[in-house]
Structure formats: C-alpha cells, structure tokens
Amino acid sequence: MLYWIFLGAFSILFISILYFRKELKTVKEKKKIDYFGSFFLITGLITLILLLSEGPFWGWVSPMNISLYAVCPILFILFFYSQTKIKQPIIIYSACKSMVFITGLIAFFISFGCYFSLCYFIFSSDWRK
Predict the structure, then answer these.
(1) How far from chain centre, in Å, is Cα 69?
(2) Residues 101 and 61 in one domain
(3) 54 and 103: one domain?
(4) Does residue 2 lie within any of the structural domains?
(5) Between these two residues, 119 and 114, which has the higher pLDDT value?
(6) Full-prediction pTM beyond 0.85?
(7) Which pLDDT score, from 0 to 100, does residue 98 have?
(8) What values do phi and psi take at 79, rounded to 5?
(9) On the CB side of 104, how many CA atoms lie within 13 Å of its CA?
(10) Quick one: CA torsion of 47, 53, 57, 62, rounded to 10 degrees?
(11) pLDDT at position 123, please?
(12) What share of the chain is helix, strand, coil (3-state, %, to 5)?
C-alpha cells in the first residue's frame, strides 16, 4: 500500500516531462566525454575507499596500504591537472570563485556535521541511561 504515496510524485514527473519535452529535444549540443579525467577520478576514489575500508584489517602500515597512500594522491593530482587542460571539464573551477557557491558549500558542511553529531548523540547508549 505504500506505493500509492508515490502516485502524486510520479504524476507531477510525468506532466513535467510532457511539458518540457520540446525544450529537451531542442538541445542538440554534442558533449565530449572526458575518459582520462573519469579514469583518474574513479581510480582515485576506489583507492581512497579501499584504503579507508580495509586499512584496519590489513594494518595501517602494511605494504598494501603504503602503496595506496602513495597512489591515491597521485591519481587525484593527475585528475585535477587533466581538468585544467580540456575544454569541457568534469569540475568547473570557475564556480569555486563565486561567494554564493562557497557560502552554500560551507552551510552544507556545517548542517551535515550538525546532523550527524546529533544522530550520534541521540543514538549513543550513554545518553539514554
């Protein structure tokens, strides 16, 4: 019975797709895919996640983790360097110069930190006793 709740959202989505269909068809601009940047970003994130998730089990100073410590920053540096050399980058660095963007980013991280701090405080076992 829970799926009936989404009926309103799906109907609004369907109506908006029908309404904006003409504008969606008029966009014919070809976009190039940045394969090198995507490769560096994905492999950098995979090494970072692997390092953080498996680090306690492998040992933080194991040869595998030390190699991940070395490879991960190199991949991110190569990603950021590759983004400065192409016409259509994945990350647009000029957006970081906008004070509105920076203020929104700071507000997001503050609210995110407050939310998870509150969740940790509420669900900790010492608080309920």
Answers:
(1) 21
(2) no
(3) no
(4) no
(5) 114
(6) no
(7) 86
(8) -65, -50
(9) 7
(10) 30
(11) 73
(12) 80, 0, 20
3-51 confidence digits (pLDDT tens): 666 677 778 888 888 887 776 666 566 777 788 889 999 999 999 998 9
Cβ contact 79:44 at 8 Å: yes
Task: Give the contacts of 84 (CB within 8 A, at least 6 positions apart).
Answer: 93
Please state the separation of Cα 107 from the chain's center in Å. Answer: 17
Distance of alpha carbon 101 from alpha carbon 92, whole angstroms: 12
Task: Please tell me whether residues 65 and 101 are part of one structural domain.
Answer: no
Q: Which range marks the domain in which residue 111 is found?
A: 92-129
Residues in the chain: 129
In 63-108 the beta strands, taken as DSSP E runs, fall at none
| Residue 68, C-beta contacts closer than 8 angstroms, at least 6 positions apart | 47, 50, 51
Instruction: Say how many domains are in the chain.
Output: 2
Q: In which residue are the tokens 């407050």 written?
A: 114
Same domain, 82 and 122: no
